[in-house]
Amino acid sequence: MILSEESESRVIEMAWEDRTPFEAIELQFGLSEPEVIRFMRKQLKPGSFKLWRARVSGRKTKHTKFRSSEVTRGYCPTQYKHR
């Protein structure tokens, strides 16, 4: 899948956000979790990628099915402008 520079930037931003699940990235950009991981490996410097992987590994908020029902998120009006 080829993403615009703006979409690439948004995927990276969403991947770093603690409360944005991989499912939201897949819904918006069509990238599954393994594809996001490959994308991040390609886009980030090795040290940044290691920090990101350590951060998201095992983080329940990055997976919708593991999230507590108490985890909610407010969206800004421009959040889904790519749809």
Provide an overview of this structure:
- The protein has 83 residues and is mainly alpha-helical.
- The chain has a domain of 53 residues.
- This is Fumarylacetoacetate hydrolase.
- GO terms for molecular function: hydrolase activity.
- Keywords: Hydrolase.
- It holds the Pfam family DUF2805.
- It comes from Vibrio fortis.
Give the gist of this structure:
This protein is mostly helical and 83 residues long. It has helices at residues 5-16, 22-29, 33-43, 46-56.
Write the layout of secondary structure elements.
Layout: H1 5-16, H2 22-29, H3 33-43, H4 46-56
Assign a percent range to the helix content: 40-55%
How much is the average pLDDT?
A: 83
Query: What can be said about the biggest beta sheet?
Result: none
Oligomer: single chain
Number of strands: 0
Give the overall silhouette: globular
Beta-strand fraction estimate: under 5%
* Structural class designation: mainly alpha
Q: What order do the SSEs take from the amino end to the carboxyl end, as H and E?
A: HHHH
Please give the count of helices: 4
- Cα-atom Rg, whole angstroms? 13 Å
Spans of at least 5 consecutive residues whose pLDDT stays below 50 are none
Distance between the termini: 16 Å
